Structures are given as structure tokens and as C-alpha cells.
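Researcher: Dear colleague, please comment on this protein.
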Amino acid sequence: MSKYEPLNVFLRSQTRDQVPMTFAEIERVLDDKLPPSKANRAWWSNNPNNNVMTREWLNAGYETESVDIAGEKLVFRRMRQAKPGGNGGSGGDAPSSPRPRHPGFGFMKGLVVFEAGFDPTKPFDDEPWDRGYLGQDGKK
């Protein structure tokens, strides 16, 4: 049994689509303290690879929203599955599982390398943008 499984059980027992909770209420459900990383917004993201607790609320059919780190509260919102034969919109009654990543996701990771000191976010202002474009020198 996972340390965070009581949250899964609690959320599965809910009949509401939105379950607002404080961090203290979550700790009471878990009968344990949340880790210090609870103060990081990423801890509460709905990425299934994020942490063990994230998988528990996702497997229960919920996602987090309205995360207020300073106020130590959030809302668990029930996920909706697309209606069978529908246009892919939400609205079904059964909770859905997290969407798997496309196999091509991240296929170029590590292949693009920037020279030390190069800032890819800085505009290229060392020469006018229209000079030398496609082999032209800008003269007519």
C-alpha cells in the first residue's frame, strides 16, 4: 500500500465533481505530513511522472486546479472522459486515465547543443534581418 493511497480511496468515495481541500485536510486523510516539496507548484501538477501522490489522485479520476501555495489549499476536479462516438469533447460520466505521451515526445532531446555563452532567447540584432536572406545581399 502506497503512503498516498488513502488520498486515492478518499477521492474515489467522493460524489462531487470538485473537492476543495486544504493541505492540512490532505494530511489528515493521509494520516501523515506532506513533504516539504508541497511548497512547490510543480508538486501539485497533473504530470503522472511527477510523484507517487500525483498518480494516486489521477488514478482516482481527479486533477488538481486552483492550487494556492500561500493559502495551502487546492481543488481536486473530477476528470471527464469523452462521450463514445462523440467529437472528442468532454462530458462523459466515467473518469479518464491520464493521456499517454506520444512516442515521438522528446525524440530530439540532447541533439541540439548551444555554444557556451549563446543565448537563444536574445534577438539577433547583430545584422539586419533582411540582409543575406536566401543568398541575397539586400541590394536590388
Notes: Strands lie at 18-22, 62-68, 73-78.
